[in-house]
Specification:
The complex is a heterodimer of chains A (319) and B (264).
Chain A (H helix, E strand, L loop, with lengths): L4 E12 L2 E12 L3 E5 L6 H8 L7 E6 L2 E2 L4 H5 L2 E4 L11 H12 E2 L2 H14 L15 H13 L5 E5 L7 H14 L4 E6 L2 H7 L2 E6 L2 E7 H6 L4 E9 L1 H9 L4 E9 L2 E8 L2 H13 L3 E8 L4 H10 L7
Helix pairs in contact in A: 3-4
Chain B lengths: L7 E2 L9 H13 L3 H22 L7 H34 L1 H5 L6 H35 L6 H28 L3 H21 L9 H4 L9 H7 L6 H23 L4
Helix pairs in contact in B: 1-5, 2-3, 2-5, 3-5, 3-6, 3-7, 3-9, 5-6, 5-10, 6-7, 6-9, 6-10
The chains are: A alpha/beta (319), B mainly alpha (264).
């Protein structure tokens, strides 16, 4: 069965005894997208991933991947998925090369030379070639993470599920992972959970924010940013500030001014209801008045602002 | 994703999906690490030393039946402790350290995961805890006894030694599927192993349910299965052999059922 969505969940819920780890999650993940799954610790991100992989069973609702049911067709789904766990654990008696050989063997067979070439390619990709034949028990956290990324891709997955892929990596490692994700978009869909907001904003197309087991925001990044607190202009000025403030406040398209101080100047945040009117008139109004404008710009929201708003909004309470 | 045309998808179907890979991995745990020779050394060393002390400590060789009983005790009872210790980490260890969840995120079915462990560990136990020490014991008694054991009798005895180990292997595996901590798994399995004598004493019908009488005589010296097979006596219970074999299979089936419901 073909579907435009790689992942679809419908009212997906998971309860452990009396704890609602996930509540009525409805998700749709487009093919070839990079889907950022955000949330504070304990939000239900790993639970969702485990439900998708059939490692745990939902208490209610259902999920499908590639149009297949995650309970009844779990093995068929896993045959097309690459997965990096949050804390990768591998068989300690194996080397990195043997681990990749084991994983490759779970998915495909073929000429030994071709399989070894694929393994070498993966080792090189994560910069583990020189450590390929060392037992995993000697690996550091970062090296295990890199091996985790390699083993998740060895099978040419149609869907790559990464649980906190950059968590144990240094800044260079993080950058490499983000670049890799961007490159892979051409071939695969990337679904990844993280709490590093900067990474999400850099590479994701779509974002879901989960809090206390509930979905609190979902959409393309641009939409989420635009939907945040409305349009706000930052204005720094000096002179007859109070007179200017009264003049601005009477405009029908101004919904409020939050005034403060910055380096001895007045610093305003002007909320507007009509962006076009504001763009045309606000600066002119101020410049023509008894003040000197030293800074004037439209406020750019960061994902962090949106994240903090929805998480601290407190509208979602775990029952 | 853009795959490689030289590769074909694995052809295993249904519950066997992933069995080949898991089996290879489990085999390498035994045979590509020092585990196999360490186990060989321990059990061949213990059995060889104890049997040697009995066979060669006096001028007159002991009776064949007495040596057979001693062999049955040392070859049957002691390695079972090793089997329990090895197997308790196999499932619970992997559940705790996350490797089971990782392996099961690949296209590996749960029955394939568990059965690969049964096959690989059975083979490891058979070679290192049964065959290698057994061959040493057979050679020693052939050199020392006036009426040594026959080869067919010895092979039959060796099979029952393995059956006893397999009983504890499957019991520990089943317990591992039920519990998340090592304590109850090792406690119950070793409890069954060491409390058999008292349980059979209190409830005599248990002599047909527990593997005690495979190794240890309950009345006459030659009424235990292994010594009987070694010396060519027919004074043993074939029902016990069948029951223990069936119980072992039942443990595996129950383990499979429980493991299929496990959440990781």
């Amino acid at each position: 069965m073909s579907t435009p969505f790689v992942i679809e969940t419908h009212e997906l819920s998971k309860t452990y005894k009396n704890v609602h780890a996930l509540q009525s999650l409805n998700l749709k993940v487009q093919q070839n997208s990079i889907f950022g799954f955000l949330g504070p610790n304990g939000a239900g991100k790993t639970t969702t991933i485990k439900l998708m992989l059939g490692l745990i069973r939902p208490t209610a609702g259902k999920a499908s991947i590639f149009g297949m049911d995650t309970i009844r067709q779990s093995v068929d789904i896993r045959a097309r998925v690459g997965y990096l766990p949050q804390e990768p654990h591998f068989y300690e008696y194996m080397t990195a090369r043997e681990t990749l050989r084991f994983v490759a063997g779970c998915f495909f067979k073929g000429p030994k030379k071709a399989i070894e070439e694929r393994i070498d390619e993966m080792l090189e990709l994560v910069d583990l070639t020189d450590k390929a034949d060392r037992p995993i028990k000697t690996f550091s956290g970062g090296e295990r993470q890199r091996l985790g990324i390699a083993q998740a891709q060895v099978n040419y997955p149609d869907l790559l599920i990464l649980d906190e892929p950059a968590a144990s990596l240094d800044p260079l490692g993080r950058r490499d992972v983000l670049e890799l994700m961007s490159k892979l978009r051409k071939y695969t869909t990337v679904f990844y959970s993280t709490h590093i907001l900067d990474d999400v904003q850099r590479v994701s197309d779509t974002v879901v924010i989960l809090n206390k087991g509930q979905l609190v925001a979902q959409g393309p990044i641009e939409e989420l940013l635009a939907r945040s607190e409305g349009i706000v202009y930052i204005v720094h000025l000096k002179g007859e500030v109070e007179a200017a403030r009264k003049q601005v406040l009477v405009q029908p398209w101004v919904s409020g001014i939050v005034a403060g101080q910055h380096n001895g100047e007045s610093a305003w945040q002007v909320s507007v209801s009509d962006p076009q009117a504001a763009e045309m008139q606000l600066l002119k109004l101020l410049v023509d008045g008894p003040v000197v404008v030293t800074e004037f710009r439209r406020k750019q929201y960061e994902l962090e602002d949106v994240f903090m708003q929805v998480i601290e909004g407190g509208s979602n309470v775990r029952k | 994703m853009s795959g490689n045309s030289a590769f074909q998808l694995v052809s295993e179907r249904c519950w066997r999906r992933g069995l080949g890979s898991m089996l290879k991995s489990e085999m390498s745990r035994w045979w590509k690490t020092r585990m196999w020779w360490v186990q060989c050394l321990i059990w061949a060393g213990i059995l060889g030393f104890l049997l040697g002390a009995i066979l060669f400590s006096s001028q007159d060789a002991p009776p064949s039946t007495e040596v057979a009983v001693i062999y049955a005790v040392f070859a049957g009872l002691f390695p079972a402790v090793g089997v329990v210790i090895i197997m308790q980490g196999t499932i619970v260890g992997e559940k705790k350290d996350g490797t089971a969840a990782w392996a099961l995120s690949k296209p590996i079915t749960r029955p394939a995961f568990l059965i690969s462990k049964v096959i690989a560990n059975s083979l490891g136990v058979l070679v290192t805890m049964v065959i290698v020490p057994g061959v040493i014991a057979f050679t020693m008694q052939a050199l020392a006894l006036r009426t040594p054991w026959t080869l067919p009798g010895f092979l039959a005895g060796l099979s029952v030694v393995f059956l006893s180990d397999f009983y504890f292997l499957s019991l520990t595996l089943m317990l591992g599927a039920f519990f998340s901590n090592r304590g109850p798994v090792i406690g119950i399995a070793l409890g069954v192993l060491f409390l058999q004598q008292y349980l059979v004493g209190m409830l005599p019908f248990l002599r047909y349910v527990l593997p005690w009488n495979l190794m240890i005589p309950l009345g006459q010296p030659e009424d235990a299965v292994i010594p009987c097979l070694l010396v060519g006596s027919h004074n043993y219970s074939t029902i016990l052999i069948a029951v223990i074999a069936l119980e072992s299979l039942l443990f595996i089936v129950i383990g499979l059922w429980r493991f299929s419901r496990e959440e990781f």
